Amino acid sequence: MRLFLKVPLLGRLGPVANMFDWIATALPGIKEILTTGKICWELRESLEGTAPWDLIIVDAASTGHIVGQLDAAQSIMELVQVGMVRQQTDWMIELLSDRNLTGLLIVTTPEEMPVSETIDLVGRVRDRLSTEIIGIIVNRVLPALFTKDEGLIFDRIAEQERDQVAELLGDTALEVVDSAALARTMRATRAAHMQRLAESVSLPLWYVPYLFVRSHGRRVTSQLADTLGEEL
């Protein structure tokens, strides 16, 4: 309202605000076009030198909503042929379609349901949108506990030499063995999901490790940033 209709602050209060809220709720695609449009506007302003941004990163909606948000401009353009709304959607579509300016980065986890949703999302984006998918970040990847040779030794201990381990180190040592066995099984299962993802989407995959921490402060953020930087 402030950017395009030049409605001052007082005009956005009371009945005027209620009217626009009713319009945004009643008309399909209006909320999506407002959300995406504000981001595109910031990008256009930065390209023209009137906004200070070097890079705009958006934590977007979930997989069930992101296609609708990015497709809103195209949908409205097909409905509205002339006027201010059409003019707004034209430049938005141009920015969203420019591969040098805009890209979609998908984040998933190496589990069955998230991987299936990601594969489905990639297909819908390619079918309906002109926005390019940059790649996929696979988050919470479990680390490998052992090398291949070490794994063979561990399997023998876990399956055939449990009594000797308990006798030498106590029963609590078996809890460590069982935990390690569970971690190896989970990693193997998740590796299969990651393989299915890689074969299905033909996109760059970047892996972020599972961090076994309780808090998510600056130190953890730095760890993730360093790891992602190495991946890139």
Major β-sheet, in short? 3 strands, parallel
Strand residue percentage: 5-15%
Structural class: mainly alpha
Number of alpha- plus pi-helical segments: 9
Low-confidence stretches: none
Strand tally:
3
The value of Rg in angstroms is 25 Å
Give the termini distance in whole angstroms. 40 Å
**Helix amount, in percent?**
55-70%
Q: How do the strands of the widest beta sheet line up side by side?
A: 1-2-3
Shape: elongated
Oligomeric status? single chain
- Report the order of strands and helices: HHHHEHEHHHEH
Average residue pLDDT: 86
Question: What's the SSE blueprint?
Answer:
Blueprint: H1 15-26, H2 30-47, H3 66-79, H4 84-97, E1 103-108, H5 112-128, E2 132-141, H6 148-160, H7 162-169, H8 172-201, E3 205-209, H9 218-231
Parallel strand pairs: 1-2, 2-3
Helix pairs in contact: 2-3, 2-4, 3-4, 5-8, 6-8
Please characterize this protein's 3D structure.
- The protein is mainly α.
- 13% of the residues are buried.
- It has a three-stranded parallel β-sheet with strand order 1-2-3, with helices on both faces.
- The protein is built from nine helices and three strands, in the order ααααβαβαααβα.
- The chain is elongated.
- Helix 5 links the parallel strand 1 (103-108) and strand 2 (132-141).
